[in-house]
Design brief:
The protein has 88 residues and is mainly α. It has one domain. It is 73% helix and 0% strand. It has three helices and no strands. Helix 1 packs antiparallel against helix 3. The mean pLDDT is 88. Pfam families: V-ATPase_su_f. InterPro entries: Ribonucl_Kappa. It is found in: Membrane. Keywords: Membrane, Transmembrane, Transmembrane helix.
């Protein structure tokens, strides 16, 4: 199987996805726990659980990006070594 995206794009996507998963998971946890800094003041969302659900949906999308891009990076590494089966 050949990679679809370039090696730079694959590794960039992996790094960005990891950061996005960590940051959004923390934000989602804070909204889910109804942290007063995020839901207690005026002008903030009143339903922290609904906000947390949409943030966790974004986390799932970034997990899918991470899996796809990590597989693409693996395919690039395998192709650089000479493929799945090397005769030399």
């Amino acid at each position: 199987m050949k990679p679809v995206v370039s090696v730079l794009n694959a590794w960039s996507c992996v790094v960005i996805s990891v950061f996005a998963i960590v940051i959004l998971s923390v934000l989602g946890s804070l909204y889910k726990s109804e942290h007063p800094g995020f839901t207690g003041s005026e002008g903030e969302p009143e339903d922290g659980a609904a906000v947390a659900a949409s943030i966790f949906t974004a986390v799932l999308v970034y997990i899918a990006f991470f899996v796809f891009c990590a597989f693409q990076a693996y395919l690039h590494m395998r192709a650089r070594r000479g493929g799945a089966i090397s005769l030399s």
